[in-house]
Write a structure and sequence with these properties.
13 strands, SH3 type barrels, about 5% helix, mainly beta, single chain, elongated, 2 helices
Length: about 170
């Protein structure tokens, strides 16, 4: 488990007064402000977040220290993080994506299939992107209880029962 968890990203500037377009990765988009201050990935900068309004595909927000459109433009693509201990504990059978990335993946027979490279969601549910020496290309595996019956964070592994022909 990582010490910092990505909760949002700057999509660019919004308007001419230093506001930014903020993409929130929290379950409730506006809850991102509750975790303020947010930090850059390297921790070199922190920002207090004040949401100003909901906009198409995100939120408009003011970040402390950002006063001009040019400053906001420079932040485009920047990811924003919070310390793990400021996030609520997930419910049973819920996991933070950051906890799944890097886990070893084994089939129900114990054969190593690879590792979780990323967790993606294109609207129909979470997909685990697997990569490993036995796979020619990365594979997207639906993250459901049926296909991934065991998530053992303490041991750093997943046990999967992939559909026939997927791997």
């Amino acid at each position: 488990m990582t010490d910092m968890v990505c909760v949002g990203a700057i999509a660019g500037s919004f308007g001419v007064r230093g506001e930014v377009r903020l993409k929130s990765f929290t379950a409730d988009a506006e809850a991102i402000a509750d975790y303020s201050p947010l930090a850059t990935e390297d921790g070199s900068q922190t920002f207090t977040v004040t949401l100003t309004r909901v906009i198409k595909n995100g939120l408009a927000a003011r970040l402390s220290g950002i006063e001009t459109k040019e400053q906001a433009d420079e932040m485009k693509g920047m990811k924003l993080f919070v310390p793990r201990d400021r996030l609520p504990d997930p419910d049973e059978d819920e996991f933070y994506h950051a906890d799944l990335i890097g886990l070893e993946v084994r089939d129900t027979g114990g054969t190593l299939l690879g590792r979780v490279k990323s967790v993606q969601n294109h609207g129909a549910g979470d997909l685990l992107e697997l990569h490993g020496p036995g796979l020619k290309n990365t594979v997207l595996l639906p993250f459901t209880k049926e296909i991934v019956p065991t998530v053992d964070l303490a041991s750093g592994r997943l046990v999967v029962d992939p559909p026939e022909g997927l791997l």
